[in-house]
Amino acid sequence: MTGVAKQGAIVVFAKAPRAGLVKTRMCPPLTSEQAASLYEHMLDDVLEATADFAAALGLDPLVAIYPADGVRDVLPRTPGVYRIIAQRGRDLSQRMDWAAAEVAASGASPILLRGSDSPVLSQACVEDALRALRESDVVLCPDADGGYNLVGLCRPRPGLFDHAMSTESVLDDTLAAAEAMGLRATLLEPGFDIDTAADLALLERARAAGQADLCPRTLAYLDERGLWSPAC
Fold first, then answer.
1. Tens of pLDDT along 18-41?
2. CA angle, 118 then 55 then 195, to 5°
């Protein structure tokens, strides 16, 4: 990675918004093309919001893209403040380890990794993670399905994610790995990802509570296409 970071970094994990590659657990009821378009709108919202967080909090914003040739799909929609890296590794656990090591090599600390399918993750949550990292080695923001949508690290911890990812036990497995490595871990207030059609009900409730201001494109797409039902 070129350049030398003199601050913390926040990395958005992104996929090329291609039918059949993203949000496949939403199909059915969505078609693969609808699922890809929904992800595309979520990604746009997340990239804009995270760029704002980074500017407000003095973080270096990066986007890590999968697959490597997905750069051509994601780059045109990425705000110019981001540095672009390709995800590397045979699975998500390796790609997370690699991204943390790559960012740390530029001098960045702390390091935050966030998903691109958690459109209501707020700046307050990022601030909480940074605050917790003053006394913890690992910070996780749980989501509703047993995983997490934000990871905070003071420095890379090789092997922390060396277990099956995208499972109902991934949060517990990561906490167990942290304990085995002697790391201090902190959990933030839970959030949610949009992984299945049923998860759209969580987004609808967040909007009703005034907590979905960060994802206008996502909401507009769902409204315009009438995709809230049958999930909501």
1. 999 999 999 999 999 999 999 999
2. 5
